[in-house]
């Protein structure tokens, strides 16, 4: 296991940078979504993400030695969940504003808390129940306005895909929790990206769109941004505790909002504004399970 280094400022800066890079990836995916197939996007995003990941592993002297594994089945399960989540996420981004697709990803900590109860035998506390209730209320507030208009079928489909992506991501992260005791972070990332690239390549017989130079450039950038975002997040968690980084998880929502407004000229919906505090409160409660609430009471 990698030794933790206490450099909180570096961790915070890297977490903020990872949010910018992740948003850059989503902007690229959104920009090509009308002309490029989802499987084609998944392939290019994954294949070119291997470049920064491999450079990072070589820098840490983990390549190729760090790819040795004792849990091939665990890697396959984690990668399968992750690849399916990527397909669902990119399909959702094609139908929704980036800010709404990113907000739905905040369901993951809540689903992790519930998954810990169902799959790992953890206690279902009142705090987890409240987190689940707030998150579900946020989803309803986000989706209900779209149910009033017949022309918004695409939005509803996008919301379903966004929730499905969060659910599949939860499965991937729960698997990571199990295999990370013996597997390196680099190996987990490498095999996930490799399986995702192969899954995207498997859609080639279904028909890929011819790519313009602009579309090809955006697809390559999506991979480089995605790989770099993963590296920044990995280093952020190495330099600072997750509890210190948690508030900046929500700052990262600012970049998708700005991307919608400034790049795609999509206004922020009232449903998003009402759902935002509910879903963030639910995600915060799930992430801080008992720690940040009971401590001041003891004081």
From TrEMBL:
The chain crosses the membrane at residues 12-32, 38-59, 80-98, 104-122, 129-147, 159-176, 188-209, 215-236, 248-266, 272-290. InterPro entries: EamA_dom, EmrE-like. It is a multi-pass membrane protein. It is found in: Membrane. Pfam families: EamA. SUPFAM superfamilies: Multidrug resistance efflux transporter EmrE (SSF103481). Residues 10-143 form the EamA domain. Keywords: Membrane, Transmembrane, Transmembrane helix. This is DMT family transporter.
């Amino acid at each position: 296991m990698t030794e933790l280094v206490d450099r909180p400022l570096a961790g915070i800066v890297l977490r903020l940078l990872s949010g910018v890079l992740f948003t850059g990836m989503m902007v690229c995916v959104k920009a090509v979504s009308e002309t490029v197939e989802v499987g084609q996007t998944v392939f290019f995003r994954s294949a070119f993400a291997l470049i920064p990941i491999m450079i990072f592993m070589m820098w840490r002297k983990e390549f190729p030695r760090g790819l040795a594994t004792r849990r091939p089945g665990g890697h396959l399960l984690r990668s399968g969940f992750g690849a399916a989540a990527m397909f669902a996420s990119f399909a959702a981004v094609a139908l929704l504003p980036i800010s709404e697709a990113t907000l739905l990803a905040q369901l993951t900590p809540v689903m992790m808390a519930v998954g810990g109860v169902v799959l790992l035998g953890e206690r279902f506390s009142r705090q987890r129940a409240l987190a689940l209730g707030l998150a579900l209320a946020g989803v309803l507030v986000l989706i209900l306005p779209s149910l009033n208009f017949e022309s918004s079928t695409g939005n509803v489909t996008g919301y379903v895909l966004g929730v499905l992506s969060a659910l599949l991501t939860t499965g991937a992260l729960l698997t990571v929790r199990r295999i990370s005791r013996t597997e390196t972070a680099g190996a987990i990332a490498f095999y996930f990206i490799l399986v995702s690239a192969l899954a995207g390549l498997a859609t080639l017989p279904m028909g890929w769109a011819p790519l313009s130079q602009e579309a090809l450039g955006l697809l390559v950038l999506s991979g480089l941004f995605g790989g770099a975002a993963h590296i920044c997040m990995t280093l952020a968690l190495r330099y600072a505790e997750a509890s210190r980084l948690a508030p900046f998880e929500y700052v990262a929502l600012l970049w998708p909002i700005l991307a919608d407004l400034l790049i795609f000229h999509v206004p922020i919906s009232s449903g998003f504004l009402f759902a935002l505090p509910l879903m963030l409160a639910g995600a915060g409660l799930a992430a801080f399970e008992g720690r940040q609430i009971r401590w001041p009471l003891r004081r």
